[in-house]
Design a protein that fits this description.
By secondary structure, the protein is α/β, with parallel strands linked by helices. The chain has 10 helices and 11 strands. It folds into 2 domains: 3-219, Spore Coat Polysaccharide Biosynthesis Protein SpsA, Chain A (Alpha-Beta Complex); 222-297. The mean pLDDT is 92. InterPro entries: Glyco_trans_2-like, Nucleotide-diphossugar_trans.
Length: 299
């Protein structure tokens, strides 16, 4: 059984280089390939790829059309594996990731979608409270425990997601109207994708020993970065699960009310001088503002 690993990359060559060094440590007797789609079409990215072509089973593609999901769709016709692991260019896989996924997939032929742990590659500052769901999602942190179990597809995250190729042979692709694309994009690409698979009747399994690390960069350890992330997450949450409601000037009225309430809570948090509380309150406000913004776009 062959496994294909697929991810898109956009600039960030230093991050890509570190990830590819980790892929060189993979130990497996199974056939595999690493499909990398450059969504920036940069000479610098090609140079990094060339550096590893003799060390890794790389299939390198370029997709000039902007958008991560355009890049992933570009990869679909090139996939040779019966199993397809989707991840990101800033993910460091465990050396046994292929063996763990292939063996689990063989044992669970009735399951078509799998997901594993995503842990940070550094110790986060104390003011970043990872017990808060919004902060977990901002950093892509997922730890479902140490036992394999069937889970809703919505509990699988895109940094560590395995899908049988037969799903794509049914015509499923990635939605290009959502996902990373420039600075003001709608988050929730994998949520939307997995939501469609759930509606089609596919089931999911959490694989506790399928572990990857997410590279956390210095610039991400700021309230400003987390606030922008929360705003995009809000846009994605509304895009994937919006409801009909009364509107005022094109905006959902309940979101206008919630924005005011969250703004007041942010002021109170700022007065507390507690960085953790300030971060949580501002992220909540920005998440609501993201939903508010998308509520008008969805009109």
């Amino acid at each position: 059984m062959k496994l294909s690993i697929v991810f898109a990359t956009f600039k960030s060559e230093a991050i890509l280089d570190k990830s590819l060094r980790a892929y060189c440590n993979i130990i497996t007797s199974y056939q595999w390939e690493l499909i990398i789609v450059d969504n920036a079409c940069r000479v610098e990215t090609r140079q990094i790829i060339e550096k590893y072509k003799d060390k890794l089973p790389i299939v390198f593609l370029e997709q000039p059309q902007p958008g991560k999901n355009n890049a992933l769709n570009k990869a679909l016709p090139s996939i040779q594996g019966e199993l397809v692991m989707f991840t990101d260019n800033d993910i460091i896989p465990a050396s046994d990731i292929i063996d763990v996924y292939v063996k689990t997939a063989k044992k669970n032929m009735n399951i078509d979608v799998f997901g594993g742990k995503i842990l940070p590659n550094i110790k986060l500052p104390k003011w970043i409270d990872t017990s808060v769901f919004g902060i977990k999602t901002a950093f892509g942190i997922l730890d479902g425990g140490n036992e394999d179990k069937e889970i809703p597809l919505g509990d699988i995250w895109g940094g560590n997601m395995l899908v049988r190729q037969c799903v794509f042979k049914e015509g499923v692709t990635f939605n290009t109207s959502i996902g990373p694309n420039g600075k003001s994009y709608i988050m929730g690409s994998e949520t939307e994708f997995l939501g469609r698979l759930s509606q089609l009747g596919y089931s999911g399994l959490y694989v506790s020993k399928a572990i990857v690390l997410h590279q956390i960069r210095d610039e991400q350890l700021s309230i400003n970065w987390l606030a922008h992330r929360a705003f995009r997450a809000g846009k994605g949450a509304f895009f994937n699960n919006h409801e009909n409601a009364k509107k005022l000037f094109g905006f959902h009225r309940y979101l206008l009310r919630k924005s005011i309430i969250d703004f007041i809570k942010s002021l109170v948090a700022i007065l507390s001088l507690n960085k953790s509380k300030i971060n949580i309150a501002i992220m909540q406000l920005c998440n609501t503002l993201g939903k508010l913004s998308q509520s008008r776009n969805n009109c």
